[in-house]
Amino acid sequence: MPYFVTDSHPDCSGWAVEKDDGELLGCHATKQDAVDQMVAVSLAEDIEPGGERAAPDELEVGDYVRWRSSGGVARGRVEHVMREGVLGVPDSEFSINADPDDPAALIRVWRPEGDGWAETETLVGHRFSTLTKIAPLPAPTPDEDRQVDLDLPDYILSAAAQGVEWHEEGLSGDGVVPRTVREARDMAAGRVTEDKVVRVAAWAARHAVDLDADGARPGQDGFPTPGAVAHYLWGIPTGSRYADAVSWFERKAAQVKAEEGRAVMTPVEPRSKGSDVEFRSVTAELREVGDGNTFVGYAARFNSPSQPLPFIERIAPGAFARTLRARRDVRLFINHDSGQVLASKRSGTLRLAEDEHGLRVEADLPDTQAARDLKELMRRGVVDSMSFGFTVPRGGDRWSDDGSERELREVVLHEVSVVTGFPAYEATSAAVRSLDGLAERTGLSVDELSTTFEALAAGDDVDPARVSALVDVLQDALPKADAPPVTPVGLLSKKAELLAKRPPAQVAV
Q1: Where are the domains of the chain?
Q2: Average pLDDT of 267-280?
């Protein structure tokens, strides 16, 4: 437990040395005497001194701080301060009560990078009393030998500036994070980092589907939608220069990666709208154990090649190790539907572990209609797939030189699911989910579309009316004279090909 010095301890009129939980260890007339005691007891216990507690009026947005975490001393920059009320931490279930005597701060975590520090996507919340104000963290020294020209074209500068303007008018919706806005302002001023260029290229590939919505492009009713504003904030105009901007970022990202000796990543197909979460499934026998209310299966298999996504993907042993040690909750769903929860790690009804085969899942099923139906389907052998939802942290994957193969070496696990439909390792979950939109556009049901794709792949006769409906959609997707392509026909055809493939043979667990 670290020790701190403070001049605001209620039981000390001078400078106090206190434990992390506020327990008074000593009271001194001078700050130096308190610091000496704090250092002495810290050295005796072989821990790093906590430093001086931040006073209620000491910190503000933009200040750099450090604090004690489970992994040691962490550092970051304050993004929001709340002096009264409840501070929620985005993308987590944690919240902190703030009061005037001990405000709360939302902090962007920074990590060492090269000879300096760089901000991450991670946000945490802490009371002022656990924070110590520090000097600004230095950015990494730029590599003067870099040969990649990152001078931004005027249409990207203008797009970023327009995105900031729309954001300030409240048109960006709730999904935009402060970092995106800061980086948009930098782009509007002509500044962009190599890391940002790489992230823009990947972001554009995932979010192209957002431009299918009405109002996403100039001249359409309802323009600009929040999805369009997000594109502009990322430096991508959605009008006639859309393809130019995307091509520029992809080209520069490839140059940056090539110079760094990294593989050029093949863009991954878009996931569900507004989400960075990827989904993969494996066909495997699910079996009951004990009283029949507990089942065991595998949500992932190590070193097993996926079907083309269009790249081949393998999961390395140990990829789940870090996320399984974390205290974050993971839930078991049916078909990734958060409305159909079967078990959770936090409640103890879901147990996850890595073994020599892969990610082993053991769950105690509840006495609900959904669970009873699932057990019956398992007994009949109808359900034979599991899936998991994940994100890949920086450096968590490795690509082959030609971008045709990807190895997942570390993932952040968000959920696991029993899959009653298409296994996502046969086709990405995003491709399956896209059938909903295709069904709406063709007037066919999802089942009719699935049956049609299977018949086409097998060379069987297909209802001419269904073929006609699909042809109409494909014709609409062809590039227009004055507009960039919205949904490439090749990608749609690839999805149809992947969806038409039949599941592989079952693997005994």
Answers
A1: 3-134, 154-259, 272-509
A2: 48
